[in-house]
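Table S7 (text form). Paired inputs.
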Amino acid sequence: CGWMMWNWLVSGLATEATLLLYDGSPFYPDGNVLFDFAAEEKMTIFGTSAKFIDAAAKAGIRPRDTHDLSTLKTILSTGSPLMPESFDYVYDAIKADVCLSSIAGGTDIVSCFVGGHPGQPVWRGEIQAKGLGMKVEVRDDQGNVLGPGEKGELTCSKSFPSMPIRFWNDPTGDKYHAAYFDKFPGLWCHGDYVAETDHGGLVIYGRSDAVLNPGGVRIGTAEIYREAEQVDEVIESLVVGQQRAGDVRVVLFVRLREGIALTDDLRDKIRKRIRSNTTPRHVPEIILDVPDIPRTKSGKIVELAVQRVLHGEAIKNLNALANPEALDYFRDRPELTS
């Protein structure tokens, strides 16, 4: 498996836990299949993805009304930032008294820099706490530690137990150091664009290398996704920055519900939602529809690959994509040549 979740699950056996694994589409034969599984097996911890929770909400699934989930204590969400509205959905439609833990880390560390804390309150749209043994700090581009509410890079300033010490086929260590330590010498820089909260938790706004920069203003991609994907007609979206005339214009691609056309009225609706809840800088200059969005084999959308396509650059590591053919939907779009 190319994702750390497999390795992570195996460690659960050391606690004498029973692992419950589901192989198949989470929406076949219908959207309740995972909740059927949870009820039948009397599941106590349900691990899933932020995308599944969002999709279940849009499908109107309400297991709280149809399933006995009395044994369920915790829901873990990962893969991408969990939107504030998804927190609302979990407590309204799944179960009111679960501990909802959005978690974030990486396959490279087989761990979490930030995650859940069963002894602390759950705050809407936030990851509760820094991981044990993780000296997590948010820094600006000059390496200064930032305070609550200020967006910057997620760094770790102390070594930690699951920290990799080398890469295969990297005898000099150059690739390893370039991956984590080039930006801030001596500090692990994980590549997430985040902000600490007043509660000691974190909000993740997207990958640092995918951050948009229109007019010199840094915008995390998740800030746009959380608004665009609240529009009923939009199933999912992908946003990138396209270099044009010395600046960056924001281009939003949307995958729409079956039978829905991307009209000017729908574009206006999407822009209005984004503008109302963010800033004018967040509003996409161009909105286009696509039938599919490229993603990794672990289900994460790949903004950088699409950005490279838009700029006519070669795509690295196509083998990591589950659906590389989806990149063709982004090539040679006449709307992006002017």
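Next pair, protein 2 of 2.
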Amino acid sequence: MKFDYIIGNPPYQEDDGGNGKSAKPVYNEFVSAAKSLNPEVLSMIIPSRWFAGGKGLDSFRQEMLNDEHMARIVDYENWKDVFPGLGGLSGGACFFVRDKNHEGLCKVTNATKTNEYTMERKLNEYEIFIRGNQAVSIVDHVRKEHKDGIFLDSFVSSRKPFGLPTNYKPKEKGIPCWFIQRIGVKFADPEDVDDSKGYLNKWKLLAPKAPIAGQTDFSKPVSIYYDSNVHVARAGECCTESYIILGAFDTEEELYSFKSYIFTKTVRFLLLQSVVSQDITKKNFCFVPHLKKYIGEYTDQRLREMWNLSDDEWKIIDSKIN
């Protein structure tokens, strides 16, 4: 049987009984199944999470980004621009057109209710797909200016930096430990603390693993890190899986210098380019330069001069970050 056109809106995820927190995506399986039928044209509307993350979506992302028959992607950062009557879906939605007779660049459109911005792009330029067309040149510019090519994804901790799960129960005494916000600083049994990465005796900047929880419309300015959700853990303190360690340092002075770097709009903009959901992990820092040594206070003006960012580039950065 030959199919000329396949058009669809497949199921998005499989209910796991856990309020969707670890639901398994299934739309990727429908896309792959449709591709296997070798239609002339395939078009589907699916969540945009596959651009940069999502449970079990790494191989699907590589398959999509390396497919030279991808002719068109239209991305909506605000899910409600596509389905106004439904609840928000973190990360937005996109539709794509795969044309068997097309080879080469893909026409990518960033769409809102009021405007569109389109450019032709090579989809597999990076392992993570940068959704914002205007952001691509800024990321490329910063990477070119950052000569040593080392980025913060090599410095930020993995999940569960001390081996303590989110549901770890506080102890009466032991090592001071940062728990979820409502519990605060309590104690962990030294026998339970894994310090194989050497974080314990350093000054640490802790950030929640879901720092933009509650925001599903990424077309609006995003708040990622700020004083009330980022914490300084002193040398000798640890944390549960509720946090990742953005940076660990020998001195308090360098820690606060690093914190000022993270809090700049420029750094948070670069981070945002790999974020399509409320969760942030170390891999999302792949576009943020690691300066190795942090000295003094960092401001956006200082970074603009360091990376030679233009006024037009700054306007884009400033418009996307709270």
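The chain has a mean pLDDT of 92.
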